[in-house]
Design goal:
The complex is a heterodimer. By secondary structure, chain A is α/β, with parallel strands linked by helices. Helix content of chain A is 31%, strand content 25%. Chain A has 2 domains: 29-257, no CATH class; 260-417, 2-Layer Sandwich (GMP Synthetase, Chain A, domain 3), CATH 3.30.300. In chain A, a hairpin with a 5-residue loop joins strand 1 (32-42) and strand 2 (48-55). Chain A is globular and about 100 Å long. By secondary structure, chain B is of the alpha+beta class. Chain B has 3 domains: 25-144, no CATH class; 174-288, no CATH class; 303-467, no CATH class. In chain B, 46% of the residues lie in helices and 12% in strands. Chain B has helices at residues 2-10, 25-31, 39-49, 83-96, 119-128, 174-184, 216-227, 237-244, 261-269, 290-294, 298-301, 304-333, 341-351, 358-378, 384-401, 407-420, 426-464, and strands spanning 58-65, 70-77, 113-116, 131-135, 141-144, 190-196, 204-210, 256-258, 273-277, 283-286, 466-467, 470-471. In chain B, strand 9 (273-277) and strand 10 form a beta hairpin. The chains are: A alpha/beta, B alpha+beta. The A-B interface holds A 1, 3-4, 7-8, 11, 18, 21, 23-30, 32, 34, 36, 55, 57-59, 61, 63-65, 99, 101-102, 104, 130, 132, 158, 160-161, 164 and B 6, 9-10, 13, 331-334, 336-337, 341-342, 344-354, 357-358, 397, 400-403, 407, 445-447. Chain A: It is found in: Membrane. Chain A: Its main location: membrane.
Chain lengths: 417, 510
């Protein structure tokens, strides 16, 4: 009898425990509407206009029970006070519970990003547990609602796929920066460096004048013909103290990625003027061989920073028919040219950050921290105030990799003969 | 149903009601007497005991032994005795020889003759298939072993199939089984000790062990447990297993059951004790650990890498069987942020038209799979394939088309089901399949949290289990000196120790 009573007691525990405790946040997967991207615009007063890009799970599936003709996604925009209460407001229109589980892209209009209060709304994202910290922060030139509506990729019709591919590829080619929400919050809270968000637009902008058109462009300035999507992700939006202050070109974004001590720089494929023939250009791949070395002396007045950057350069085109592989003199000449040009570009940008932005986007402040024994001392040093006056030296070390798969070229004279 | 099960579990605690029984005392008294010198009396007693002539196959034959000038009778059961041998080597010499000699034994040209002097023993011998010869004025009888109980020959193993290695399996005759083991271990230290176990049917089991390896304490423990049984009848080993195991309500088996003589003898060589029994085409190996249920003999027959590869697959299969359905349920009801977007949308799209919640859907499908599996097992082989097609194809396909279940659930359940077949032992197979349901329910109620809790509890339970004093997860937890043949096996030349948890008399293998 005793063991029987015990058994019944244990059975009761197992039966009542689930019924009493309930099933917390149990929610069937198909009863949610998955938001892939959120667009934020400035509304009236201190309100936001929020745009939801909601994926349609049924789109594009071949189901035995019958497939659908529904569109790939649904877009709604409405005015709201914050990012969290909006989920319930949206249910006036959207039938299912709004879920941020798939949310990976936060698109903010330039107008909103430049307001002082922008940071207040961004901290809403830290409150909601479904908001992922690796959400990409994208700044759009036009209103985010327009950006989302206009964006209609031709081949990747499922929105999350399109964003996933184009942003990952953009980060790989270094045309945009790797900008997550987490990074935004970290840099803003550290109050020392600048943050780069992804910049994109669906509007056409006139390209800049001048012949150096290759990398010196902003989003919308790349001329593309044909029947394709209007959206371009190029360059980055510069944030200081949580507020957007400027936008950077592709070239500046790439320089930032190369000089960054936090992120590893990807292989950068770019073109430069040919040092041996004014009419042509050479294509090169720049690979960062090792992490950059930063030497800093905070005791000196002004503080000196020495950045050592070991690079490998592969020369991929040779329109002037120089035959670098077999010609050491020309190689040395090219090396000298490259170092000079890189130094020039780097110094130009650093000067811009010192004079115009009064801070740097390279994450160097992290190296300064270890020079101080206490946080208080570091805070007293005040990176943001000291940076504009610092003496920044860049030394570049270039190693040549290969010169294309076939390095040798025929002599032009013989061919033309 | 649950209540019924609980009732069954506790029914043994109830008082036994009074039944209108009839005492057998008179017959028991008769049987304990000595054999009568008067042949007539003997025959009539036996006729009474064997309910002659109602009992059809009991044979009484009276004749004269001329050389002794005495009357005699042979009693035997002709369905289990070899009449030909009786005629040729017993009756003929006794009838035809007219030279007067003193001894009957000399007339019989059969080896296995023994004297019995109590009626009970004579009855036992007749029941075994011997012919018992009663001679007038003798106070004993002669039991002549002529038993010819029909047997199946040694066939290949059907439930534990291997591609490489010996194919034969035990049969229902324990002497054949014993010879199969003796053929592998040619050693005088191999002991086959017979122990009578049941009160009414007189079943005998054989404890097979190697005298200079098996631990005495373990052996005595098993012997005591077997001798302590007070049961009328134990027909075969699966029944015996349930009588002697420690935790009868445990989910996990603690005695290994195999039909392969090669497996049995390799366990005997390691110091384990094997139980053989008539009417059982198999043997019990004790004590058993979790690992012995996880291993199959082919693991060692295959080359090191191949063997370990199958082990890895099997372990993976166990985890897939345990967890896939539960993980699916957990993900779709609690942790949708854990899956990649495309899969999430795919699952969401397929679930859109399904009327049932994911937990019920999976449980339903699991149940259907269980039914198909159980049904398929009992289907006569001639219509088996039809059922297979109906079960697997039509049911799954139609259920998906009717939007009753989503196709992903079919994949998940089928994967788990197929993987469950990689668990070789039938008892362990049941244990894993049953815990699978528990995992699904735990995961449906509390998500991964529930699964983790249940898994942890399961591990606690497994660690607490013992089989004849041997911890269930040894030699891994607790650690013992052994050949470390647990999850993976080692090279044969490195497997130099017998399992330490058995405390064998000789630890080192050569």
């Amino acid at each position: 009898m005793k063991s029987r009573n015990l058994f019944i007691k244990i059975l009761c525990v197992f039966i009542f425990l689930p019924t009493l405790s309930g099933c917390w946040d149990k929610k069937e997967i198909e009863k949610k509407a998955y938001v892939v991207a959120i667009g934020l615009d400035k509304g009236e007063n201190e309100n936001l206009v929020i745009t939801y890009l909601i994926a349609n799970p049924e789109f594009g599936t071949q189901q035995q029970g019958g497939s659908t003709n529904e569109p790939p996604h649904e877009i709604i925009s409405f005015e709201t006070n914050d990012l969290i209460s909006s989920t319930n407001k949206a249910n006036a229109v959207i039938a299912k519970e709004i879920s941020y589980n798939l949310l990976k892209y936060l698109i903010v209009s330039e107008k909103l990003a430049k307001t002082k209060n922008f940071i207040r709304w961004m901290y809403d994202a830290t409150k909601d547990k479904d908001f992922k910290r690796d959400t990409y922060l994208i700044v759009s030139k036009e209103n985010a609602s327009i950006f989302i509506t206009n964006n209609s990729p031709k081949l990747e019709t499922r929105a999350h796929r399109y964003f996933d591919f184009i942003i990952k590829r953009g980060i790989e080619t270094a045309t945009i920066s790797d900008a997550s929400l987490h990074k935004y919050l970290r840099i803003t809270e550290a109050d020392a460096d600048l943050f780069l968000a992804i910049f994109g637009t669906t509007e056409k902008v006139d390209p800049p004048s001048g012949d150096d058109m290759s990398d010196n462009i902003f989003a919308g300035q790349l001329k593309v013909n044909g029947n394709t999507n209007k959206t371009q992700f190029i360059g980055s939006a510069l944030f200081k103290e949580g507020k957007m202050i400027d936008q950077l070109t592709v070239e500046e974004t790439r320089i930032t990625r190369l000089l960054s001590s936090v992120d590893e720089a990807p292989d950068i494929l770019t073109t430069l003027p040919d040092p041996f023939n004014k009419d042509f250009k050479i294509s090169i791949t720049i690979t960062q061989l090792k992490n950059i070395k930063i030497k800093m002396d905070v005791n000196k007045q002004p503080t000196t920073i020495h950045v050592h950057l070991p690079l490998q350069v592969d020369v991929l085109s040779d329109h002037s028919m120089v035959n670098y592989a077999s010609n050491a003199d020309k190689r040395n000449e090219l090396k000298k040219f490259l170092i000079e040009r890189f130094n020039d570009k780097f110094n130009q940008f650093i000067k811009k950050t010192q004079e115009e932005y009064k801070s740097e986007p390279f994450g160097w402040s992290l190296h300064a921290r270890r020079k101080f024994a206490t946080i208080a001392e570091y805070e007293k040093f005040d990176w943001m105030k000291s940076y504009p006056g610092m003496d920044v030296q860049i030394s570049i070390d270039i190693k040549f990799g290969h010169f294309g798969r076939q390095s040798r070229l025929p002599k032009l004279k013989d061919v033309r003969d | 149903m649950l209540l019924n099960i609980i009732k069954k579990i506790y029914s043994s605690n109830k008082k036994i009601p009074r039944f209108p029984e009839k005492s057998n005392k008179k017959e028991i008294e008769i049987k304990s007497q000595k054999i009568y010198t008067n042949l007539e009396q003997t025959i009539s007693t036996f006729k009474e005991l064997y309910s002659f002539p109602i009992n059809n196959d009991v044979n009484f034959r009276t004749f004269d032994i001329r050389s002794l000038n005495k009357k005699a009778a042979i009693i035997l059961i002709d369905t289990i005795a070899d009449m030909k041998i009786v005629n040729e080597f017993v009756l003929e010499p006794l009838l035809n020889n007219s030279n007067p000699t003193g001894k009957v034994e000399e007339l019989l040209s059969i080896q296995a003759i023994s004297k019995v002097s109590i009626i009970q023993h004579a009855v036992d011998e007749i029941n075994k298939g011997s012919a018992v010869l009663f001679i007038d004025s003798f106070d004993y009888a002669l039991s002549i072993s002529v038993s010819n109980i029909h047997n199946r020959g040694v066939t290949s193993s059907e439930n534990e199939i291997v591609l490489k290695g010996p194919k034969e399996a035990f049969t229902e005759e324990s002497s054949i089984n014993l010879s199969l083991i003796r053929r592998r271990i040619k050693n005088e230290n191999l002991v086959a000790e017979s122990v009578p176990i049941s009160l009414r049917t007189h079943n005998v089991l054989y404890l097979v062990y190697i005298k200079d390896l098996a631990n005495e304490q373990l052996l005595n423990n098993i012997k005591n447990r077997v001798k302590a049984l007070k049961v009328d009848s134990i027909q075969n080993l699966p029944l015996l297993e349930q009588h002697i195991e420690e935790r009868k309500l445990s989910l996990f088996p603690t005695i290994l059951y195999t039909e392969r003589p090669d497996r049995a003898s390799s366990y005997v060589e390691d110091g384990y004790i094997v139980i053989l029994m008539d009417n059982s085409p198999d043997c019990l190996i004790l004590p058993a650990t979790f690992w012995s249920f996880f291993h199959i003999s082919e693991d060692h027959y295959l080359r090191f890498i191949y063997g370990n590869f199958t082990r890895a697959l099997r372990m993976l299969a166990i985890f897939i069987t345990l967890f896939t359905s539960a993980i699916y349920v957990g993900i779709t009801t609690f942790h949708s942020e854990m899956i990649p977007p495309d899969l999430l949308l795919a699952i969401s799209a397929t679930r859109e038209k399904v009327p049932l919640p994911a937990t019920i859907e999976v449980l339903l499908m699991e149940l259907a799979f269980g039914l198909i599996r159980e049904g398929g097992l009992r289907v006569p082989s001639s219509i088996g394939p039809t059922i297979g097609i109906v079960g697997a194809l039509i049911l799954g396909q139609a259920a998906v088309q009717a939007n009753l279940v989503s196709p992903i659930v079919v994949i998940v359940v089928a994967l788990g089901g197929v993987c469950s077949f990689l668990v070789p032992d039938i008892s362990m197979n049941f244990a894993i399949r049953l815990s699978r349901y528990c995992f699904i329910i735990a995961s449906g109620l509390f998500g991964f949290f529930g699964m983790t809790v249940f898994f942890t509890m399961g591990l606690f339970y497994m660690v607490s289990l013992k089989s004849f004093g041997v911890p269930y997860l040894s030699p891994m937890t607790p650690k013992y000196t052994s050949s470390k043949d647990t999850l993976f096996r080692r090279l044969l030349k490195n497997e130099i120790f017998r399992p330490g948890y058995l405390k064998p008399k000789d630890m080192k293998k050569n």
